[in-house]
């Protein structure tokens, strides 16, 4: 799984490294300092979606025998993008899988909807645009899109909405374990549910009177 916290952790690591380089103190072992770094990292990440540079200023972040220490670090959008480039690239994995499962090409996708606050990051938007060859839709709030979808699904199930058809599928193949620890697949991944499948299995031994199903 991949989310905003992974991006925050990259910024936290960068700030901790910069402070250790400057002051010789590793903040990773200080829980209180780490909490302040986490809050500052999230704030900086959000600011860099609309600004080219931001300053992280955390006075009295820690202290040693010489007195209190302060953390002041400037972070540019370019630096942030270099810190999280591999994370951004990882977001394309599920896109490739979805396209392959649907047997379509990126050019056949009518509209790309961004989901989650991290999709406000310019680098993410740019990467999505390059992959799909089109601008992602901006008419849906990425923080609200999941809730909106759930509300629509609820309305469909209740019968209040009749012009929308939402099909649920199994995210993983389903099956049972047979003799020798072999997985025998019964229902393929991405099968529309509800569904059912039957298959006849023989016993492993003569006169066997019980089975364990996994």
UniProtKB/TrEMBL annotation:
PROSITE patterns xref list: HSP70_3 (PS01036)
Molecular function terms from GO: ATP binding; ATP-dependent protein folding chaperone
Highest taxon, organism lineage: Bacteria
A Pfam family assignment: HSP70
SUPFAM superfamilies associated with the record: Actin-like ATPase domain, Heat shock protein 70kD (HSP70), peptide-binding domain
Record-linked InterPro entries: ATPase_NBD (IPR043129), Heat_shock_70_CS (IPR018181), HSP70_peptide-bd_sf (IPR029047), Hsp_70_fam (IPR013126)
Keyword ATP-binding recorded: yes
Keywords tagged on the record: ATP-binding, Chaperone, Coiled coil, Nucleotide-binding, Stress response
Annotated coiled-coil segments of the chain: 27-54
PANTHER family, per database record: HEAT SHOCK PROTEIN 70KDA
Family membership noted in the UniProt record: Belongs to the heat shock protein 70 family.
Name the record gives this protein: Heat shock protein 60
Gene responsible for this protein: dnaK
